[in-house]
Amino acid sequence: MASYKEIFGTNIEVLASDPANPVAGQVWYNSTSNVVKGFALTAAGAWSTGGDLNTARKLAGSAGLQTASLFYGGGPVATAATESYDGTSWTEVNDLNTARLSAHSFGAVYTAALFSGGTPGPRPAMTTATETWNGTSWTEVNDMNVSRIYGSSSKYGTTTAGLAFGGETAPGAIQATNELWNGTCWSETNDLNTARSSVLGGAGISTSALAFGGNIPPTTGATESWNGTSWTEVADLNTARNYLGGAGVSNTAAMASGGTPPNTGKTEIWNGTSWSEQNDLNIARNELSAAGNTTNGLVSGGTTGSLTAATEEWNGAGSPITVTFTDS
């Protein structure tokens, strides 16, 4: 068998640490970890296992990116616990002021997140409380106009601009309500075309958002696009579901993952026109939390029938990955 040098004309590099800016096809020996590694671009998107949450929970808030994310609140018993993710492991940080689950959450970066509404438990108790995260602690700010649970939001929103839509104000009282956050207060704006609840998926920003899935009833795959003024019905998800995870940067780039019924790991990507099926989550679940974008996403927690602390990382087609070679 020909050697690496005979094939490529050079020996494998020996480095004390992984290179900061490798190029596709580069191979090196890491003398610190004693392994051979290579750098490549993925041909198709796929999920891989990340570090588990410290506390398994469902219906929590999430914000940020795959390598810098925030996970907060959740249940089934309402908690104020907040954890941050560095791309490898979760660390407990300062708690919310109000313990709750199933609230609206968004944040493009993990240093600037928002959590509003939800229930401190037990149902039917609900709150309009809103809190913002500055990278260190949570601060109470102006309340929502309508208290509700099981809604969604423009997941790439910021602490100065975002949307909260859908949900229910009492068991079975499903809403189309849409509220806009301007960094100081909430104002009611044009509603969804179809009222829905059961944690419909959400993506985008305050001027370019997407709402998908949920429960009307029945469970739906209906998708609506927000242009900063109004909602327009667009193409449905391939798999109708509720209690799903939604992420993405705009109404032209979003991701749906997980959901029920029954529990699924199905993942779909929205390109501005239609949804396409991708590789499934490794763990089928619902009531999960999602963050990131269609290239580098993250899902955590939820339930498989029992609570899970599992985290999975999404690397979309063309994403850079470092692989470790073995002799097996």
Q: For the CA atoms, what is the radius of gyration?
A: 21 Å
- How far apart, in Å, are the first and last alpha carbons? 17 Å
Number of helical stretches of at least 4 residues: 1
Strand count: 28
Describe the largest sheet. Answer: 4 strands, mixed
Order of helix and strand elements from N to C terminus: HEEEEEEEEEEEEEEEEEEEEEEEEEEEE
Question: What portion of residues belong to β-strands?
Answer: 35-45%
How would you write the strand order of the largest sheet? Answer: 1-2-3-28
Name the shape in a single word.
Answer: globular
Q: Key terms for this structure?
A:
328 residues; mainly beta; Neuraminidase; 28 strands; 2% helix
Task: Give a concise summary.
The protein is mainly β and about 325 residues long.
Task: Give a description of the structure.
With 328 residues, the chain is an all-beta fold. It has two domains: 4-41, no CATH class; 46-315, 6 Propeller (Neuraminidase). The chain is 2% helix and 38% strand. It has one helix at residues 4-8, and strands at 13-15, 27-30, 35-41, 46-49, 61-65, 68-72, 82-85, 90-93, 104-109, 112-116, 130-133, 138-141, 152-153, 162-165, 178-181, 186-189, 201-205, 208-212, 223-226, 231-234, 245-250, 253-257, 267-270, 275-277, 289-292, 296-300, 311-315, 320-325. Strands 1-2-3-28 form a four-stranded mixed β-sheet, with no helix packed on it. A four-stranded antiparallel β-sheet has the order 4-27-26-25, with no helix packed on it. A four-stranded antiparallel β-sheet has the order 5-6-7-8, with no helix packed on it. Strand 5 (61-65) and strand 6 (68-72) form a beta hairpin. The longest helix has 5 residues, at 4-8. 47% of the residues are buried.
